[in-house]
Structure formats: structure tokens, C-alpha cells
Amino acid sequence: MAIQHPSAATSPVPAAELRGVARRFGGKEALSGLSLVVPRGILLGLLGPSGSGKTTLVKLLTGLDRADEGEAFVLGERMPRLSVLGRVGYMAQSDALYGELTARDNLVFFGGLYGLSGKRLQERMEAVMSLVDLQAHLRKPVAAYSGGMKRRLSLAISLLHEPELLLLDEPTVGIDPVLRQSIWRELLRLRERGMTILLTTHVMDEAERCDSLAFIREGRMTASGTPAELMQRSGAQTIEQAFIVLGGGATA
Ligand SMILES: Nc1ncnc2c1ncn2[C@@H]1O[C@H](COP(=O)(O)OP(=O)(O)OP(=O)(O)O)[C@@H](O)[C@H]1O
């Protein structure tokens, strides 16, 4: 099922694509023949009840996991492919940070993985830490960070190398409303500058801000389109109602 947005830049190569992917864990099918095209330059929201397969889908795009059937492509390359990783930013659901290191040392470490150093690394560290409002805590060990601060640092790290595709798994969980607004302003600004963003969320006001949405249930896509299209198709007044009508079920 192709996700299209009227204002999306039409590039022959989508930012991401899944073709008939299935992923099984033991007897459980987490994804079942799911296809999805993410054109460049859009902000796509994945919505689905807890356990519907969102994280599994995102992990296939990062190359951290492989499909049992079907194919995953990122920026025109079949995944998993190491050379694509420098063009992709990923923020996992649980923070992958080194607690014993300071935030600064975490940034230097991850920046190094992406080939950043010297003045450029310094500039990028300042930019991303200012974005998540953590400049004052650069030299604090991450173990002393609150849960929300760790989420913010993880987001900063995912943006460090100015990726073309940003994959965010529930990026605003544990983040207070004021900062959540400023993070959303920045995500929209990054999208305006051409970054493609795919995020998972359970928050309906976040879903409304996406260019396109994909509803997922039990490993299958039940509906996709712009928020307005989905509301019109379902005769709903809100995204939450559309989600329920179109087979998304209740969010956890
Ligand atoms: N490594 C794994 N081993 C076994 N089962 C797994 C594994 N990863 C995912 N699953 C199962 O696959 C299904 C989909 O999980 P997934 O984490 O993708 O859901 P989700 O939509 O991201 O949920 P949530 O909104 O709660 O994060 C679930 O039933 C989950 O228990």
C-alpha cells in the first residue's frame, strides 16, 4: 500500500519501502505480508495497538532485524546494508546510551561512528543539544539523567549526522508537554528541509500533525493516507475515531 502526500517531493526512489514483509518470532507472526512505500520528504506516523508490529517494522528498516519473507529497501538499497546506516538516524524505544559516560562523551562516541570529528562534530553537538534543551547537562553522566532527559539525548544522537531518513520509535514518551511541542516544531522544520521522518506514536495529537498515517493491527496494515483522507473515508471527526473505525483498534 503506497503512502502518498500531495506535497511530497516525487523522487523515483522512495526513502523507504517494504515489499510483502513477514517476520515471525516462534509461532507468532509479528508482521504478515506488509507492504509500505514512504516517499521522500514526508513525515509518516505509524499507529497501532501495543504489540501490533510497529517496532518490528522500524527495526527492519534500520537493518537491525531481517524479514523472514519479503524485502526492505532504504534509500534505494536493500536492507540490511551497512553503507546506508550513515544516512539514517534511529531512535529506539529503549535508550541505547552509555550510562557511565557523560552526554558529551556519548555524543563524541556516536559522532565518531558516523565519521564526525573536530569543528563539525562540535557544531553538530551544540545544535542537537540545544534542540533538546540539554546544553546545560553536557558534562553530566547519563546515569544521572532522568528518563525524559535520556529520551531527549537519544533524539539528539539520532540527529547528529543530519540523516536523510529519521526513524523514531515513540520519540516523545516521557517528555514534558512544552518540550514535546518544541521537538515537534523541529521535526516539522527538518521535514520542511527535506528530511523524511517515520515515527511510531500512540499520541493522537501527534498523529494529526503527520503528513501521512499507516494504521497497523496484528502485523497488517489496515489503512493508510493523510489524516484528512482517513477521517473522510471513515466518516470520523477525529483521527482517534478514524483509527477505531478503520481497524486500528484501541491504542494501549
Ligand atoms: N525479539 C522478539 N522475540 C519474540 N517476540 C517478539 C520479539 N520482538 C517482537 N515480538 C513480538 O512481536 C509482536 C510485535 O511487537 P512490536 O514490538 O513490533 O509491537 P509494537 O507495535 O511496537 O508494540 P508497542 O506499541 O507496545 O511498542 C509482539 O507480539 C511482540 O511480543
TrEMBL record:
InterPro entries: AAA+_ATPase, ABC_transporter-like_ATP-bd, ABC_transporter-like_CS, P-loop_NTPase. The keyword ATP-binding applies. It comes from the Bacteria. Keywords: ATP-binding, Nucleotide-binding. One of its GO terms (molecular function) is ATP hydrolysis activity. PROSITE patterns: ABC_TRANSPORTER_1 (PS00211), ABC_TRANSPORTER_2 (PS50893). Residues 16-243 form the ABC transporter domain. The keyword Cell division does not apply. Pfam families: ABC_tran. This is ABC transporter ATP-binding protein.
